[in-house]
Amino acid sequence: MKPFGWLTNASRMREIIAVLWRNGFDGVLQKIRPPSGLLRRITPKPRSRHSLWERIRITLEELGPTFVKFGQILSMRPDVFPEPLIIELQKLQASVTPQPFAEMEPVLRAGLNGEDPDAVFSEFDPAPVAAASVAQVYYATLRHSGQRVAVKIQRPGIQKKIAADFEILRWLAQQAHQRIEALQPYNLPGIVDELGRGLDEELDFRVEAHNVSFFIQRNKGREHVTAPRAHSAFSSATVLVMDLAQGVKIRDIEPGSPLAKAAAANGASSLFHQILVDGFFHADPHAGNLLVQRDGCICFLDWGLVGQLTRHMRYTLVDLFEAFLSGDSAQVVRVAMDLERNSPVYPNTRRMEREILHALRDTFDSATGKGQIGRAMLRLLHIFGENGIEIAQDYALVAKAVYTIEETGTQLDPAFSLSESFMPAVKKLIAQRRNPKTLLLNFRRTFLTGFSRVQELPAEIHRVLRLLESGRTTINFQHKGLEQMDDVFTSASNKLTIGLIIAAMIIGSSIIIATKIPPLVGESMSLLGIVGYMLSAVLGIWIVFNILRHGRHK
Question: Which residue, among 415, 353, 437, has the nearest Cα to 387 in the 3D structure?
Fold first, then answer.
């Protein structure tokens, strides 16, 4: 952090340090070395009645909205962080006190694309129905149509507050990465930068409006699933006007009731249709983001976070599901190799196979089809990450969404089976993938692409030959492992040069003393010769000391 940052953020930094200290992270604080003045007057003793993972979650909750968002985004990285931490981070919910409408009204007026609120709404209830970390939601009625809508308004000054917290968060991440060896594999600075990019999108409500509109377009005619339509004409980066969603919350439904069972099945089957068929899915389907209508139809809320999968990614995901459901750890490893992006590390496949077999036995029984599929996916992705397989973030979002919908479905129906819910989507994608028409189309596309490249080959060869003929081609050699040789040669040549100078000084001083060149000390000793001997002795002692102190390699 820059020096002026300590002045502008000293109060918030002291608060963060106090929370870390109170939750038992005093050892971490000692290692990252914050300014000593910030550690004064911190009296609360570390508490240890919670597990490490629980203390991390509690700390993030106490630190406020920015850090809660940080934890929520960390929960989307099961390939990096262990399963117990991911599960704890899934529980993060920001406890936020609503701001008075008088403070929110300027944001509303500025965000209605130049329209006056009285001209847009015939009624507007100033009491918020929901208060989140970055926004508050109100009920209103559109003047031109009389339709009831929900209005999501961004909290004033939230971007400035998040930016200030991010400055501190980046400094903490950099210090932890540099000074705590155990945390270096997690690349905390990179994760913080990724968090910043994700929050930039979440703070722009136009992204959410586009996401929900795309979902509605893709799901026209599908029963048992819906989402509140966005009114783009009255929406902006800071204000989002949506249809008022109808339905009851998950917590208000009696577990095991016919409505609860229908809701669990519909929610899971819709999510897997989104993931495997559409390739565009809601990445955070927890109970707070779902409403259940009377016929069991599921309404998905809050489309700020979505995932997208290409056709190839969906095919690979189906291969992973098939290998997983059959308990074939060797096939899971082979599929995992297709999931990686461009990792420079070649994984130990035998070790991976053993770890995957152990994870499958702990979480899922392939013989009976019973177990925790979401939890198993979190374990698998973490094993992939530990073994150097770098996967696309959208795969991690799939694991998070599957785990969340399984938890929600089990909450509604204790007998809920996730595997039964996603098999229709899996079969549909497999049929699509193996359809003769699709195979022929893929073959035709591959053939035409290959043929066009063959046609371009003579021209490419001619271009290379012209470059060679013109003499403009250069070949670069990169030597690796020789980075320290320059320092070694420089040090050796310097010491050799000083040694030659010392030898010359000794010889010159001896000649001066032998010829008794004045000025003389006494009757026979030349003062210049004595000074030369003394300088030679000092330089010689310095070289010996330097060699003994740094070793022969220096």
Answer: 353
